[in-house]
Amino acid sequence: MWTLILALLLISRVSDGQVPDSADGWEELVSSNGVKFTARNAHASCIFKKRIWVVGGRTNSYVDYNLLTNYRRADVWYSYDGAIWAQQASLTGDYFAQNTDVVQPGEIAPFYARAGHSLNAIDINADGVNDVMIMMGGFAPSPSNDVWISEDGNNWVFCGTAPWSPRAWHATTLFQGKLWIMGGTPLNSEVWVLNSVRRVARDAPLTRSLYNNYTFALNWTQMPDAPWSPRVGVSVVSQWYYNDTAGQTIANSTERMVLVGGYGGFLDEGANKAKYDGFACRADSWETYDGTTWRLLRAVNSFSPRAWAAMVTYRGEDRRVWIQSGITADKPAVPRIYLFGGGYVGFSTTSQKRISSILGYSDAYWSEDGITWQQMNYEEGGGSTFNDFYSSELWARTTVNSETTYLGLWGATINSFNTSSGDEFPGNLILIGGDYDGSGGFSSSVFRSLSGMFCNVVGVACNGNGECGSNGKCVCNSGFSGFNCEIDNNVVSGAATLTIGGALSLCVVAVAALYTW
To answer: What percent of the chain has pLDDT over 90?
Structure first.
């Protein structure tokens, strides 16, 4: 007989009864004219022609043009600064392909209303400038594999269906100058790459609807299925990376794709039966340098398992470094991967616990290597406690029944975008929309990151050992060093002391569970 005692330590940091002193990490961008897209999640966004674009998504129910109740949208919005938005109200394109009976031109796009699709800006002639936006898949209303391209955001060209199977909530990213798509529902671990896009003439269709006299021919290649479990709502980004702890320098920087989390699992049958471990959200991370060979970075990361998170790579004008000037004079920092929110749903073979709704997260992390993740925000209360829940992430704050509350957010999008110049890098992080858990509902809010976001460690600016400068770099007090002033240079027994989270008192509550077998 063995007895296993599991202890769960809940650490609550209290400083004179107040929440930690965080630097301002976000600001909400508010429209001055009141014009804005409907609150939504499962939309898609990208940066194109010095504007940020939002297309489609899932909203509260409405009566559409044919007097049917709908939840999905077929609208197109753009903004030059993230605050003032305009809707494309005279959309044109290949209405003959799908929305044949709507007003043409009009504010309803030629493609079916959809959610869980992707939208990317890509360079199709290798001149270093993105030429088109490409929208793919999504629930329309069933998972789809149609492809649409726009050169200006107003005219949309139907490019037929892709060779990959219909899907939604898939992941896309630009890697090695090409567009990659992977995962999605129905659950799969497929990986495809778009090799080329070529404009070609089109024969006039027999239709009274609007159409273009050209289309685009797309060439795809299927890569070997990835070793990670089939999943949906997975996050993937590209990142230039070098391992300075292994003696590498910026000269060794190489582009890779990093994949994190998602919901899914292997089927409990056939060759994958031995791999079956339930269907649930994951907390793993993977990397690939060629799209073929994947390496598990970490099976369980320090953050909670999640899917439908907002993840982005933040870098400077030089794609190999985090910010253009670097962190110190002698070593520029690797571009950081930022992870915000997301949600959890699932069950395992051991507990068989099913969750009928998505539990949202209100936390924030960053990582250089995809293995070690630093939490930026502070959270307190909620759960079975008597305290209201609080998160230092501004985007977690919303209003329910006329009262301010903090809730988890999933299904939001995030992009790097300089709201002053319209450039993508270096820029602010722009977080758009999403769905608050519980009674929070859909969001139409847009948040812009501030330099203070880079100074916070578990909600404490510069670990309490300095002040956050205007460039997002901590100015450390005497005796402290490190990017977040985490190194105490007062050497004791020949070693410096690390401080994480500042000089706050700790209250530790232990809860023990006893299992016997």
So the answer is: 68
Q: What is the mean pLDDT of residues 48-68?
A: 95
Distance CA 205, CA 202 (A): 8
In this structure, are residues 338 and 430 in contact, taking their beta carbons and an 8 Å threshold? no
- For the stretch 34-57, pLDDT in tens is 899 999 999 999 999 999 999 999
User: How far apart are the C-alpha atoms of 10 and 172, rounded to whole Å?
Assistant: 37
Indicate the pairing of strand 155-161 with strand 92-93: parallel
Per-residue three-class SS string for 467-502: EECCCCCEEECCCEECCCCCEEEEEECCEEEECCCC
The torsion angle over the Cα atoms of residues 260, 185, 362 and 23, rounded to 10 degrees, is 50
In this prediction, residue 451 carries a pLDDT of 87
Burial 30-56 (b: 16+ CB within 10 A, else e): eeeeeebbebbbbbbbbbbbebbbbbb
Q: Could you write out the DSSP letters of every residue in 134-189? A: EEEEEESSSEEEEEEEESSSSEEEEEEE-SSPPBBS-EEEEETTEEEEE--BTTB-
Within a 10 A sphere around the Cβ of 398, how many other Cβ atoms? 17
> pLDDT tens-digit profile of 364-376?
999 999 999 999 9
Count CB atoms within 10 A of the CB of residue 203.
Answer: 6
Task: Write the DSSP symbol of residue 323.
Answer: S
Residue 218, C-beta contacts closer than 8 angstroms, at least 6 positions apart? 147, 159, 162, 194, 196, 197, 198
Contact assessment for residue 356 and residue 343, using Cβ atoms and an 8 Å cutoff: no
The tokens 């070098």 sit on which residue?
242
Quote the Cα angle for 403-409-415, to 5°.
125
Are the beta carbons of 282 and 343 closer than 8 angstroms? no
* 51 or 317, greater pLDDT: 51
Residue-wise pLDDT for 334-346, tens only, equals 999 999 999 998 7
What's the pLDDT at 507?
31
3-state secondary structure of 463: helix
